[in-house]
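ok trying this again, last paste got cut off
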Amino acid sequence: MGHAAGLRAGTRYAFSRDFKKKGFIALSTYLRTYRVGDIVDVVANGAVQKGMPYKVFHGKTGVVYNVTKSSLGVILYKRVRNRYIEKRINVRIEHVRPSGSRDDFLRRVKENAAKKKEAAAKGTQMHLKRQPAMPREARTVSAKEVRPESIAPVAYETTI
C-alpha cells in the first residue's frame, strides 16, 4: 500500500489529547488575554479542528502580531534547507498558550537590577554573569575505617 500524504499525515500522536486531559477545554484558555508582542507556543489541540495550525508549526514558539476576537496572528520561523523563513499564521486561541521561554531571563534581569542597586549602595563591584557549575572539591577517602570490597557479578543460572 502507498503512504498517505494528506494535511494531517503523521499526526496520530501530535494532535491527540494528553492522558487525563480529554474532554472539555478549560475556560482559562478562552479568558486569557493576548497582546501584540507576546511570546506564545503553538500547540495544536486535537479537539478543535477550526483554526488549527499546520503540523509543521506544532510545538513552535512565535510572537503575536495580530489579535482578533477568537484567534491570533503569530510570526514563526520555519527552517528551509540552510535558512529560516518568516511565516505568519492565523491560529485560534485553543491552539496557543503563553510561552515560558523568557521567564528565567526576566527573573534574572530583576535579580541583577536588585544586586546592582545593593552594590551601588555599598560602593562595591558585583559580578552578574552566570557561572557554570564548577568541579567538585577534591577529597581523600580513608581505607582504615572502611575496608575496600571486591565486587564480582553473580553467575547466571538457568532453572530449566
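PB: full thing came through this time. The chain has two helices and five strands.
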